[in-house]
Amino acid sequence: MSESIIIAETSKGAVAPVTAELVSAAIAMGTTPTIIVPCTDSSIADNAGFEGAGRTIAVKGGCFENYDASSWAAAIDAAAPAGTLLAAATPQSKDLLARVAARRGLAVVQDVVAINGSNLTSPIYSGKAMQTVALSGDAAVSVRANIFPAANASGADVSVVDQSGDVATAVQEIIARASARLDVAEANIIISGGRGMGSPDNFSHLERIADVLGAAVGASRAAVDTWDDIPHSMQVGQTGKTVNPNLYIAVGISGAIQHLAGMRSSKYIVAINKDADAPIFAHADYGIVATWEETLPVLESALSAMMA
Amino acid sequence: MNSLSEREKVLQRTSGRQIQPLGVGVNHMPNIVVLVKRVPDTNARIVVNGDRVDLSAVKWVISPYDEFAIETALQHKEAAGGSVTALTLGPAAADKVLKDAKAIGVDEITRVWDDSWGELDSNGIQSALADAIGQIGGEVVYCGKTAADTGAGSTGPGIAERLGWASVSNVSDVAFDGGIIATAPAEGGAAKVAVSGNAVITCDKGSIKVRKPNVKGIMMAKRAQVNVISAAVPAASVTVVSQSPPPAKPAGKKYEGGDSAAEVASLLRDEANVI
Fold first, then answer.
1. pTM for the full model?
2. Do B153 and A303 touch (CB under 8 A)?
3. Is this complex's ipTM strictly greater than 0.85?
């Protein structure tokens, strides 16, 4: 089998679970992956061993303290062997992958959701169509989360490479999110509200359920455009964020093509809408035809009882 | 190096390397390039005929995030002087989005293309655009964080790497103080990042409000000349096999009344296993 290189996804100073899914994607491509862990503390690579994967290389460097695309790409390029590159299709890793690929003259295929040998399928036009491409030779491939099964963990055969890069940007200030809640781009569960919520104040009902589930709160474009209190950072859809969570709960959202484009690939979709003909129901695994006022209290107490 | 600002000195200490100020001296006027892409209107219905998307009936527009890039490029020029060139890659049909950019206020419009090119993969597109930016003499490049057709987001960072430049992606706000201070997502929130020297900035919607073309701009755009240039590209190693409609989702379960939320909650745990 030919070799591939997985750039491990890291989050909060640890290797993120999606990395195990990348191992399955690499194996589906007929390759044996080497795991590259960019880090400032190489001990985090001890959790980056997986059945079916080869060795793990902790790339340890000062540049990895804050994200800086050019130094990260230079350090990873210097430490990683040749082969097809894989990374998670998160905004940061897609950006990093594109830079590493450019250093190596590799073509990039982003947001892959299906692999059939060297044929890769990704959504195009925000999911309104799918495109399958064929690779001839090595490439750089980002893979969406929650598509491939996670490979089982195994003991990691870690080698540490001290390798930093020239940092080209300087972080002046970190602006912490006002809310402790996750961003929609990071969350595995999202509960979103639309204009059907009636007013931005009513989003507090969504926030309470989000807190029970450890979920992020999102919004439709209509809600963001209508109410100044709902920031664009919450917007899910074609001009907002494209999300791919395990569970997406749409409340008071009709399901405009703009919104569907951003969330249709969620693993499970729940729709709550008083209009039985709302297009969102065609995409829902579980649809509830009712007002949010009568539904959310029941949902909140049922979920609270379960999670207790 | 007396012309370095305090911010640049911080940057130099942080990065441990020599920082070249953007251009020469405080009065240097930057050559700004903004990349624009022609894409189907995001409200367009995407039809598949056979094994290819059929775009013969769609309305074409500037990719929405590129509009934020145009606005940011114009703000950079207003802060620092210089000029803004809108650059696109494509056949003559792409001139329309260049003229749209001209109407909004860019100074020059350039298209890179060669009829002898075959199918271009990301490697070819980035090579051609990086070559074109070199021909224009660009010093700072703005583009959308992704294009509305592919959604890939590879072009900005890929070009930066080919040019050996810094890049900051998914930027929601930009301030100018001789260099660029870009606000971009970071773990747990956002970071204000200082960039000196040449850079590619990819723009998100964020707080950027775009200006609309005025009558004078539209009149000037009609008369504007598109500079057409060529570039060398490598052969494609990724080729399109087929395009198809998204897979239809099997019908879900539908309930009436808010009380059914309790049953749905149970199914999420016991059937879907997602909570």
1. 0.87
2. no
3. yes
